[in-house]
Amino acid sequence: QVQLVESGGGLVQAGDSLRLSCAVSGRTYSSYSMGWFRRAPGKEREFVAGVTAIRSDMYVADYSDSVKGRFTISRNNANTAVYLQMNSLKPEDTAVYYCAASRSPRRSTGWGPDDYWGQGTQVTVSS
Q: Which of 21, 35, 105, 122 is most enclosed, with most CB atoms within 10 A?
């Protein structure tokens, strides 16, 4: 079983930066795919960023078009944390942000109930 706990959310102004953290515990492996998702009020959950092992020593990162160039996903070598650095925040980035982990290779699609999910952290960006 894998447990994910997000932190780092808050209220910021447009143009500010935030760094979200996801503490990972339980049985995880470097091969696990890790991702960040968000759900804005009245909208469906959407993919934000993900990092996937394409071989034992190489990872690939994916981003949604809406955050590409502004957000950066990273993971530590011990596979105990995943981060989302968010720069140049916009009001439309306001959402609850969720961390996810998958035993299966995942890019921007394929994530679902068989994967592990955190409880989320609120990010609010004021204009």
A: 35
Q: Output the 3-class SS for the chain.
A: CEEEEEECCEEEECCCCEEEEEEEEECCCCCCEEEEEEECCCCCCEEEEEEEEEECCEEEEEECCCCCCCEEEEECCCCCEEEEEECCCCHHHCEEEEEEEECCCCCCCCCCCCCEECCCEEEEEEC
Amino acid identity of residue 36, one-letter, is W
| Cα 23 versus chain centre, distance | 11
- Cβ atoms of 87 and 20 within 8 Å: the answer is no
